[in-house]
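Notebook p. 47: complex prediction with thiamine diphosphate.
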Amino acid sequence: MALSKSQLLEAYRRMRTIREFEENIHRENTTGEIPGFLHLYCGQEANAVAVCMHLEDTDYIASNHRGHGHCLAKGADVEGMMLELYGKADGLCKGRGGSMHIADVSRGILGANGIVGAGAPLAAGAALTAKTLGTGGVAVSFQGDGASNEGYVFEAINMAVMWQLPVIFYFENNGYGEFTGHDHVVGSKDIAGRAAGFGLPAVKIDGTDFFEIHEASGEAVQRARAGKGPTVIEAVAVRFYGHYEGDPQAYRSKEELADVRQNRDCLKILRQKLIAGKKASARELDAIDREAVDLINACRETAKSAAYPEASTLTDNTYVSY
Ligand SMILES: Cc1ncc(C[n+]2csc(CCOP(=O)(O)OP(=O)(O)O)c2C)c(N)n1
Ligand SMILES: [Mg+2]
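Predicted complex, C-alpha cells below:
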C-alpha cells in the first residue's frame, strides 16, 4: 500500500510523540506526582500507529493496560491524555480514569482496560453493532501475548468467525506476560497458528517494522469493511521497559535490553528506512523530533500545574445513573 510523503511524516510524528510521551512519564514517575500503575508502550509504537492509520473516528479500538500508545494513535488529545495521567480535572476522563482507564468514545476509543483480554469481546461487540446498523465501521482489539490464553478471547474470536464480524484481533507479542516469557505459557508458542484453528485468516508479522504492520493491518481492515469477516494478526514486538514502572526486570539480561534498544527499535528502523528510501531527510525528521519534545514538555507543565477535581465532585462521572 503506497503511502504519500505527508502520510509517512505523520506516521513518524505520531510514533515519535508517543515515544516522547512515554519517556517523559518514565522520568516523571519518580516524582510521585502520577497516581496509579503505569505500563509503558515504549518500543511498540509502530503497531498502534500503523494500524490506526487505517481507521476513522467512526471505527473502534479496544485497548489494554498498556494503552497510552493505542489511544494517542487513534487520535486522543495529547494534553488531555497527560492531564488524565496526572489525575487532573481537565483530563480526558476528568481525572477519573488515569492511565489504565483512559477512553474517548467520540474518537472510537472504547478505553484502556485492566482486565487482560477484555478488549477482544468489547471489540467484537462494537463490530456487531457496526454490522447490525450497517455503518461500515470496523473494530480492532489490541492485546498482548498473555491475553492470547484467556478463554473469553477464544470465545470472541469464535463468535466473530461465526457472525463474520468486521473485527481485527491484534496481538502484540512482546515476549512477556508480566514477568513470564511467552514461551513458558503459550502452549503452541504460536499465537497466529493457534488462532487459525478458529477458521479465519491469521498472520504473524514483524511488530518492529512499520511497513509490514501497515500492509497486514490494511488488508485486514479492507477485508472487514468489505464484509469478509475477522482477522487475527500476531505482531512480534519488543517491550523496552518493565511490565510496570518499578519492575526491576531481573528476568531479562542486560544484553537483551541493550539489543532491543539497539537493533529492534521500531522508531529507529522507520527513520532509517525513510532516509534510505529518500522519503524524508534527517533534517526533516530532526525537526519532527524537536516538535514532539516541545509538545510533550508543554503538556507536562500544563498537567503538573493544573487543578485536581474538587472533592465535592468525587462521585460525579463515576457511576451511571438511569
Ligand atoms: C484477567 C486478568 N488476569 C490477570 C491479570 C494480571 N495481569 C495484568 S497485566 C498481565 C500480563 C499481560 O500480558 P500481555 O497480555 O502479554 O500484555 P503486556 O503486558 O505484555 O503488554 C497480567 C497477567 C489481569 N489484569 N487480568
Ligand atoms: Mg506481553
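Notes: The mean pLDDT is 97. The radius of gyration is 19 Å.
Next step: compare against the earlier run before touching the bench.
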